[in-house]
Amino acid sequence: MASLPRKLELFYDVLSPYSWLGFEVLCRYQNIWNINLQLRPSFIAGIMKSSGNKPPALVPRKGKYMMTDLQHLKNFYQVPIQAPKDFFSVILEKGSLTAMRFLTAVNMEKPEMLEKVSRELWMRVWSRDEDITEPQSILTAAKKAGLSEAEAKGLLEKCSSDNVKSRLKETTDAACNYGAFGLPTIVVHMDDNKSHMLFGSDRMELLAHLLGELETLSFTIVETFLTLLPAKFITLFISQIYAQRMQVFLSKF
């Protein structure tokens, strides 16, 4: 008898590029691993304030490393990240409060659309260097994700409601209660009723280990790596080990 899917919460903010990376990787695995992925829109500024943390870009060496790191991760994970030109204005001044309230409203009213709308907001701010703070910007992203204009406008109106504001605060507080100090924060709930909090988009190997899914992760890492190689080198990696991992991977479907 197959075990029930384990609940996995992803706390994220579209202002965080590392949240986008974690989001895309987990969305790719949600139908492969035995998990129930729950997307939890949160407010990164609130988490930073609560924990006493600060954005890495405010530390010069971290900021410089971050730009190089994101370029490597962009190429490896095939996520089209491109930092905004006016980085400090976008990240530190404009913020993401309205966008995260909108995603909270989407999660409350149209949860089946949350993945697509979240992705479109990331595409705006972290790929096309477009605004995510003005109502029209959010409406454009929502419609591109598949919401009708009437649905998008209705959800935008709810952003100023006490219910939406309270829900975003509750979700942010929940992340803080798990021990979050930044985003993405991943919380995996195990069969023994214990939960494990992981920080960052680079904890997938550890997450796969906790879930007992390391074989499928290993296969997909190899598969991703192969797509980055010239065709003449690919045959060097076609081995018995690779074939075995493919069998394990396919058995998950």
UniProtKB/TrEMBL annotation:
<dbReference type="Pfam" id="PF01323">
    <property type="entry name" value="DSBA"/>
</dbReference>
<comment type="similarity">
    <text>Belongs to the GST superfamily. Kappa family.</text>
</comment>
<dbReference type="InterPro" id="IPR051924">
    <property type="entry name" value="GST_Kappa/NadH"/>
</dbReference>
<dbReference type="InterPro" id="IPR036249">
    <property type="entry name" value="Thioredoxin-like_sf"/>
</dbReference>
<dbReference type="GO" id="GO:0005739">
    <property type="term" value="C:mitochondrion"/>
</dbReference>
<dbReference type="GO" id="GO:0005777">
    <property type="term" value="C:peroxisome"/>
</dbReference>
<keyword id="KW-0808">Transferase</keyword>
<dbReference type="InterPro" id="IPR044088">
    <property type="entry name" value="GSTK"/>
</dbReference>
<dbReference type="GO" id="GO:0004602">
    <property type="term" value="F:glutathione peroxidase activity"/>
</dbReference>
<feature type="active site" description="Nucleophile">
    <location>
        <position position="16"/>
    </location>
</feature>
<feature type="domain" description="DSBA-like thioredoxin">
    <location>
        <begin position="8"/>
        <end position="211"/>
    </location>
</feature>
<dbReference type="InterPro" id="IPR001853">
    <property type="entry name" value="DSBA-like_thioredoxin_dom"/>
</dbReference>
<protein>
    <recommendedName>
        <fullName>Glutathione S-transferase kappa</fullName>
        <ecNumber>2.5.1.18</ecNumber>
    </recommendedName>
</protein>
<dbReference type="GO" id="GO:0006749">
    <property type="term" value="P:glutathione metabolic process"/>
</dbReference>
<dbReference type="GO" id="GO:0004364">
    <property type="term" value="F:glutathione transferase activity"/>
</dbReference>
<dbReference type="InterPro" id="IPR014440">
    <property type="entry name" value="HCCAis_GSTk"/>
</dbReference>
